[in-house]
Specification:
Chain lengths: 107, 117
């Protein structure tokens, strides 16, 4: 099973600041990695697929990069609605796995 | 608009059974693979199961293999998760999600399953 390790667990930032979230895989997943945003009481929302492709309707301030085992989700300038939990997910191997999440909170 | 609506959750005793449903609309259901993913409240996401377009192939997490069965009725645009021999650790919100090129893209709002005596 591929383990995805996200860091940091919590990121405390102010609106307008840049957020950089990391996801490291225990073995290569090529570019088969997605990022999701989840707010309390809501379902996950797909932000990025295949490491760097924005999903439909996702603002340009969200970007993804990386391949192999190291991936990054960047939010260029935090908007109030961006404070949430973010998960990475790999589709390279079975079973599919998710990271444990990074909470982006208001400082 | 893509919509996925789960139902069938509730309180069940350990060892009991429950069947979840996921009603799909706004897309051609029969042409998409589908997933079940669960989440213990306040915790992370755990992939549970996956089913091919025609239901001919399924896969499961080890933690549910032999106890859970995923099926679909393409005529009714509905996905199912039959859960047997339920345990306390199966308590979670269960989401269905559509698969596009291997990635779950659209998700339902989830249904809560509580296993407790």
């Amino acid at each position: 099973e591929i383990v995805l390790t996200q860091s940091p667990a919590t990121l405390s930032l102010s609106p307008g600041e840049r957020a950089t979230l990391s996801c490291r895989a225990s073995q290569s997943v090529s570019s088969s990695l997605a990022w999701y945003q989840q707010k309390p009481g809501q379902a996950p929302r797909l932000l990025i697929y295949d490491a760097s492709n924005r999903a439909t309707g996702i603002p340009a301030r969200f970007s993804g990069s990386g391949s192999g085992t190291d991936f990054t989700l960047t939010i260029s300038s935090l908007e109030p609605e961006d404070f949430a939990v973010y998960y990475c997910h790999q589709r390279s191997n079975w079973p599919r796995t998710f990271g444990q999440g990074t909470k982006v909170e208001i400082k | 608009e893509v919509q996925l609506v789960e139902s069938g959750g509730g309180l069940v005793q350990p060892g009991g059974s429950l069947r979840l449903s996921c009603a799909a609309s706004g897309f051609t259901f029969s042409t998409y693979w589908m997933h079940w993913v669960r989440q213990v409240p306040g915790k992370g996401l755990i992939w549970v199961s996956h089913i091919k377009t025609d239901g001919s192939s399924t896969s499961y997490a080890d933690s549910v293999k032999g106890r859970f069965t995923t099926s679909r009725d393409n005529a009714k645009n509905t996905l199912y998760l039959q859960m047997n021999s339920l345990r306390a650790e199966d308590t979670a919100v269960y989401y269905c999600a559509r698969d596009t090129n291997g990635t779950p893209d659209y998700w339902g709002q989830g249904t809560l399953v509580t296993v407790s005596s």
